[in-house]
Amino acid sequence: MAGSWMGMWEGLSLRQLGELQKFCCDQEILICLNGPNSQSLIEEIGKALRQHIASQTETSKAMDVFSTYIEMSQNIRNYGLSRNYDAVTASATVIIASHPQGRYSISAANLVEKEDGERLLERIQTLAKLDKQELKQLYKLQLREAPLNAGGAGLGLIEMARRSSEPMESSLEDRPEGRSFFALRVIV
Amino acid sequence: MQNLTIEANQSSPSVIADWERGVITMRGESYPENSFSLYEKILDWLASYLEASKRSLQLDLELNYLNTSSLRAMIELFDAIQEASEEGRDVSVIWRYDTRNPRAAELGKELKEDYTFSFVIVAIDP
User: Fold this and answer.
1) pLDDT (tens digit, 9 = 90+) per residue, B98-109?
2) pTM of the shown model
3) CB-closest option in A59, A140, A149 to B114
4) Strand pairing of B91-98 and B57-66?
5) Would you call B103 and A63 a contact, using CB atoms and an 8 Å cutoff?
6) Among A183, A186, B44, B73, which one is most buried in terms of CB atoms within 10 A?
7) ipTM of the complex in this document
């Protein structure tokens, strides 16, 4: 699939850049990125994001967006490292956009092994059924039970669920080589 | 025993563990790539300190943000302090937060719920 498409590829036209800009404006996208995901990139994007949102609204909102972005992108980074993925396979796709009623949507996606993706989806569906009090209890339990030196996604997911003003949404799409494209969206 | 000094950067707090005074001070934000390697040093220092003397210990924190893996490691510090407190040691935590950041205040409050040692939350006006 990628091969035949690549054959027609003659480089990005400036017209396509205009289409991308239009798409981002229509969707009220603040930041859209797709590519290798490093700690220094995470820090710089996080900083820019926090400053921008803090200039528009209250600090607590900026911290919720920042924290969700950090957890998502560090989860993706740790996952890629744990699976020994190369930089391109470990890429993150991240979109942060304005959402109605002064809220923000933070979405991130990455390639995962299919069975890991299925486990994640199940975990997120379980978390979606819990109310804020149950999430707090689970969080406190996991804070003591999660392994110390592993960048486990478990705590990060609960943290995001606690900050999310709506149940988290996730999806899984089959990709070649037994992998899936896992996507997660949080509204804060 | 040596003092422990770690410089801050954007994603990692400054740490000063002062053996003479029995105070560990941490300031900044905590979301490094590998939080365990940072907190392991502090945990080791704390264990040596508590082992070597019967003196008091204070953990003085002003952390604007902690990611979940930093918080996971911080719990180990708090649990060690709780254990010392149950053995009758004079131990305490000060949690300072910037009043512009209510999330830091909420986190301090939530952490305090789980411990019986002196845990003082202090608001800092910018």
Assistant:
1) 999 999 999 999
2) 0.93
3) A140
4) parallel
5) yes
6) A186
7) 0.94
Q: Which amino acid, residue A185?
A: R
Give me the CATH topology for the region A29-187. Heat Shock Protein 90 (3.30.565)
The Cα A170–Cα A182 span in angstroms is 7
* Residue A143 phi, psi (nearest 5): -60, -25
CA distances from B65 to A4, A53, B25, B61 (A): 47, 16, 15, 11
Cβ contact (<8 Å) for B103 and A71?
Answer: no
Q: What is the CA radius of gyration of chain A?
A: 17
Pull the structure tokens for residue A129: 């059924």
Bridge partners, residue B124, by sequence: B98
- State whether CATH 3.30.420.40 applies to domain B4-124: no
Candidates A40, A43, A81, partner chain B, best to mutate (most B CBs within 10 A): A43
pLDDT tens for A96-136 read 999 999 999 999 999 999 999 999 999 999 999 999 999 99
Domain-by-domain residue ranges, chain A?
29-187
CB pairs under 8 A between A and B: 55
